[in-house]
Design brief:
- 2 copies of one chain form a homodimer.
- Chain A has 9 helices and 4 strands.
- With 209 residues, chain A is α+β, with helices and mostly antiparallel strands.
- Chain A folds into 2 domains: 72 residues, Glutaredoxin; 112 residues, Glutathione S-transferase Yfyf (Class Pi), Chain A, domain 2 (Up-down Bundle).
- In chain A, strands 2-1-3-4 form a 4-stranded mixed β-sheet.
- In chain A, α1 links the parallel β1 and β2.
- In chain A, α4 runs antiparallel to α6.
Chain lengths: 209, 209
């Protein structure tokens, strides 16, 4: 039995950063993937009615994907080497999340099709390029952008870019979301060429999100 | 000159948790409050176009309120005493944030007045009571709810409940948001009776949010 059990939908979404951190750290875990129906059956029993949840040693059940991923990143030396690197990694993760947040409105929001199309157009043409430019500026401020988001080694902030790429691919149909941001694109390639990450990415299950 | 400079609007909102952590830790800081107009002038120069920002020693500028507050909480022993307490505090903060997130839709969302009223009614009658009940369950699971959210001492998760209370007061007009959740209410009172927090709360500037 694994020490760790992740429970999430059969998708990447908010579960993926936990899978990526554990993959980078080479730590085995049980990857429990629920259908919508199965989630409905257990929802009321969950700490905050949400998945992902994360069980440790069959005793403790955590929720909140970023809290879980940060905990694991710290445990397995993927959170930054100094106090400053750690807060910077946390900051970049939250900035990437802010970049992803508007997507929910035009994918699942309570709007008609015209309004959704308008929001999506605004996101792709106006909001997303600004977010990506600001992220690239962060990156370039550290070692001219030729290293990682913080310090000189991989952190979970870099892995969160891989998580974002999955959302851009699957929800927006953007195959090369970083095409116009060469330093971000190079970082994405650097991270996804790390052998364990490359093997994981090559064997991702086909999912809707 | 203070080591720390917080820049935010003249409101509580996303800046308040940083003020509360520094107040609890008895650490002085410069509390730089901007008008909307002043924010407009500096927006393009900010790391992610957002405030709060937080300057350390005039050298480093951070953004993302929760990343900043967590960093300070760790530095001043308000983040939890063990790895487990730390991830649980992070989790509770994110759950409280999830409880607050729907408010933005009916306060600032792109909806007509009827839709906003409908969303607000649903929030107050259906969503908020469930969030509060789940939070109270967390609390009760630790020392029967007679201590703090995690462990046996104050963490920034408890302070985040004070931040939430401010939002309920100012944006929703709820003077006693925890009235139906006695253990949460008792926690709120326990925290706001800590002398430094009590003095801070008694001298809060009158603001819109």
């Amino acid at each position: 039995m694994s020490l760790y059990k992740l429970t999430y939908f059969n998708g990447r979404g908010r579960g993926e950063i936990i899978r990526l951190v554990l993959t980078a750290a080479d730590v085995p875990f049980e990857d429990n993937r629920l259908s919508r129906e199965e989630f409905g059956h257990i929802k009321s029993t969950l700490p905050f009615l949400q998945i992902p949840t994360f069980e440790i040693d069959g005793k403790i059940t955590l929720c909140q994907s970023l809290a879980i991923a940060r905990h694991l990143a710290r445990k397995y030396n993927l959170a930054g080497k100094t106090e400053l690197e750690q807060v910077q990694a946390d900051m970049i993760v939250d900035c990437i999340q802010d970049m992803l947040n508007p997507i929910i409105a035009f994918v699942h929001g309570d709007y008609d099709a015209n309004k959704k199309a308008e929001l999506k157009k605004k996101y792709l043409e106006e909001q997303l390029p600004v977010f990506l430019t600001k992220l690239e500026q962060f990156l370039v401020a550290n070692n001219s952008g030729d290293s990682f988001f913080v310090g000189d080694s991989l952190t979970w902030a870099d892995l969160y870019l891989v998580r974002a790429n999955g959302t851009f691919n699957l929800l927006l149909g953007l195959e090369q979301p970083f095409a116009n941001h060469p330093k971000l694109r190079a970082l994405f390639e650097r991270v996804t060429k790390i052998p364990r990450i490359a093997a994981y990415q090559a064997n991702l299950p086909v999912t809707q999100f």
